[in-house]
Design goal:
This protein is mainly α. The protein contains 13 helices and no strands. The protein has helices at about 15-20, 30-75, 80-95, 105-120, 120-140, 145-165, 170-200, 215-285, 290-315, 315-325, 330-350, 350-360, 365-390. Belongs to the multi antimicrobial extrusion (MATE) (TC 2.A.66.1) family. One of its GO terms (cellular component) is membrane. One of its GO terms (molecular function) is antiporter activity. It comes from Sesamum calycinum.
Length: about 400
């Protein structure tokens, strides 16, 4: 691969704009109305730059996450145990890969989850290639390719799930197989595009240059991985804890809430990636104020998204559960958790954006320490105390 001049992924605000931001009059000045118009104009410019990369990424994340939701939905309409098993297999084992976390679960549920987990191993292996190819295409501004591939895969997965579960009647194993096929179909689509001429300027074949700076890359990747993993493991632990006493119904209800939260969080996570790029570009160009401005615009966008979903959950608490199950007991429990779910979504829409700012500034290790303290020294112990010792249950 040839080494040449690389332009920023998204064009940064010019130095003139940077100087203009610093020189804008305060609100008390006579020209405050002109300053307000300028800020609105700059906000709109930043909004377009942000969503230029975030929109395809968000669509891709929503589409790929929907694969799991579709599988859970088909399994949930078979019976409660099927939904609980597929939920644990997809939200716990696939995310953590430690089967011993099932200790304490009811025997039938643990056995069924183990069976499903075995069939989901191919899906687990696809993650290595899936996320690497996604990041490679994002760096080439080929996000529209990711969006197209994800959209096609989503449609194919929906059709295959219907055929395997309802027509061929192969049950939960068939649902797991459709997930395997769909994830590898996505990998194959992006791989073919990347190596068959879609990225001529960046992919010229295998090269020894790929190993240059590998150790520095590994250290940065390790810090980022720990930062994100600590946050994701926290929710998976809650799924396990919820099922130790109240089995299928509690696991089903909490899994539905976490699945809906996870689906919605794909939007802030898409903004997380775009925010990291915008902040890194501006800091690299020496535009500190523009980096701050980009972060503020991104936080505002994420808050708007969170507030919209907050209203949807409050307005239709029972409809969400009906997507996954027809069990009245599970639907009733989800309705009882709806307010907490809505508040969680509203508050947590800010955290990915701040993480994006940290990534753009190279502070991944610091965020990892913060996640350890907030999730594991505060969140998990507090959840166990409230749920078990104070008998608040799943809430």
């Amino acid at each position: 691969m040839s080494v040449g001049h690389h332009q920023p992924l998204l064009l940064s605000i010019s130095e003139d704009s940077e100087n203009q931001i610093n020189q804008q009059p305060h609100e008390s000045d006579p020209g405050s109305s002109a300053s307000a118009r300028y800020c609105v104009k700059e906000a709109w410019t930043e909004f377009k730059k942000l969503w230029q990369i975030a929109a395809p990424s968000i669509f891709c994340r929503l589409a790929m996450f929907s694969l799991t939701l579709i599988t859970q939905s088909f399994a949930g309409h078979l019976d409660q145990r099927q939904l609980a098993a597929i939920s644990i297999a997809t939200t716990v084992i696939i995310s953590i890969s430690f089967g011993f976390l099932l200790i304490g679960q009811p025997t039938l549920l643990a056995e069924l989850t183990g069976e499903v987990a075995m069939w989901l191993i191919p899906m687990h292996l696809s993650f290595v290639f899936q996320f690497t190819l996604m990041r490679f295409l994002q760096c080439q501004l080929k996000t529209y390719v990711i969006a197209w591939v994800s959209g096609v895969v989503l449609v194919v997965h929906l059709l295959l799930s219907w055929i395997f579960v309802y027509k061929l009647r192969v049950g939960i194993v068939g649902a797991a197989l459709t997930l395997d096929f769909s994830w590898w179909m996505s990998v194959l689509g992006m791989f073919i595009y990347s190596v068959c001429g879609g990225c001529r300027n960046s992919w010229t074949g295998l090269s020894r240059q790929a190993f240059i700076g590998l150790w520095d890359f590994f250290k940065l990747a390790l810090a980022s991985g720990v930062m994100l993993s600590l946050e994701n493991f926290y929710y998976r632990i809650l799924v396990i804890v919820s099922g130790i006493r109240s089995a299928e119904v509690a696991v089903d209800a909490l899994s539905i809430c976490i699945s809906f939260y996870g689906w919605e969080s794909m939007i802030p996570l898409g903004l997380f990636a775009a925010t990291g790029i915008r902040v890194a570009n501006e800091i690299g160009a020496g535009n500190g104020n523009s980096a701050k401005f980009a972060a503020k615009v991104s936080v505002f966008n994420s808050l708007v998204v969170g507030f919209v979903f907050f209203l949807v959950i409050i307005a239709f608490p029972g409809k969400i559960a009906m997507i996954f199950t027809s069990s009245s007991s599970v639907i009733s429990m989800v309705e009882g958790l709806a307010l907490l779910l809505a508040i969680t979504i509203l508050f947590n829409c800010i955290q990915p954006i701040l993480s994006g700012v940290a990534v753009g500034c190279g502070w991944q290790a610091l965020v990892a320490y913060i996640n350890i303290g907030s999730y594991y020294f505060v969140g998990v112990p507090l959840g166990i105390i409230l749920g078990w010792l104070l008998h608040y249950g799943l809430k």
